[in-house]
Design brief:
By secondary structure, this protein is mainly α. It is built from 13 helices and no strands.
Length: 266
């Protein structure tokens, strides 16, 4: 019986079909609706409306503020946690890491519902603190995405560099701020990116925690619910470009910091 062999190009065909059907084709539809009007004519009215509407720009700024605060809170919590897990001699540290990932196995709606009940007990009327509750909900949801890259980055640190710094007379604080922290910058950037981008669009947390303020995800949904596919597509396209720019910038900084920090340490 003849053995079947496949080339790399042949093995890539299923992925290429998936990419065309579920990535490129929807993107083409979004671009079409974004730059056309109700009569199917080419129009830049939706683009102008995005940058002249106070509602859209206000929503964008609110989304950025919520995402940045959430990312910083996650970083403050995740960095000490990842540092302790990565640098400690715990025999069961992988089990402890699993405990942080375990909530992600539970349905998202159930987790946020449970959090809402806890906040209602602690705060009473949780609708009185919409921004605070949204940050808490986002942090609870995205914290594992910050811990994992930080843990991986800290785990891969060359211990000989830390020992060399100690041998040269540096105390623990100096070793941390001059060696450990700079070398973990790629993990910080990766974690910030993984939390910042979805925090800008995840409006489910806001809805479930009684935050009536729109963010970009809910604004897009409101346009499509009102059958304004053209306006909703333009907002989606602009948000996609913003996410692409942020990703490129963070990747550029990550590459520069990796090379620069290694050189400065060495």
């Amino acid at each position: 019986m003849k053995k079947l062999t496949f080339t790399r190009k042949q093995l890539g065909i299923p992925y290429a079909v998936f990419l065309v059907c579920f990535v490129i084709a929807p993107l083409v539809v979004i671009v079409y609706y974004a730059f056309t009007n109700g009569q199917g004519q080419i129009s830049f009215k939706n683009f102008v409306n995005f940058f002249t509407s106070t509602n859209t720009l206000g929503t964008l700024l609110y989304s950025f503020a919520l995402a940045i605060v959430t990312s910083l809170v996650c970083l403050v919590i995740a960095y000490p946690t990842a540092y302790i897990l990565a640098r400690s001699g715990f025999k069961r540290k992988y089990v402890l890491l699993l405990l942080f990932i375990l909530p992600m196995w539970i349905n998202f709606t159930l987790r946020i519902t449970a959090l809402k009940e806890i906040l209602s007990v602690l705060e009473g009327n949780i609708s009185a603190y919409p921004f605070l509750n949204s940050v808490i909900g986002m942090t609870y949801d995205f914290l594992p995405f910050m811990i994992l890259p930080l843990y991986t980055s800290l785990l891969k640190l060359d211990k000989s560099l830390l020992e060399a710094a100690s041998d040269l007379g540096a105390n623990k604080a100096t070793v941390f701020f001059r060696v450990t922290l700079p070398l973990s910058v790629p993990g910080i950037i990766s974690g910030m990116t993984m939390v910042l981008l979805p925090s800008m669009t995840n409006y489910v947390v806001l809805d479930m925690l009684y935050n009536s303020t729109y963010i970009m995800g809910s604004l897009i949904g409101s346009y499509f619910s009102a059958y304004d596919w053209h306006g909703g597509s333009m907002i989606s396209l602009v948000l996609l470009v913003i996410i692409l720019i942020v990703t490129l910038i963070t990747n550029r900084f990550s590459d520069k910091d990796t090379a620069g920090n290694r050189g400065s340490v060495l």
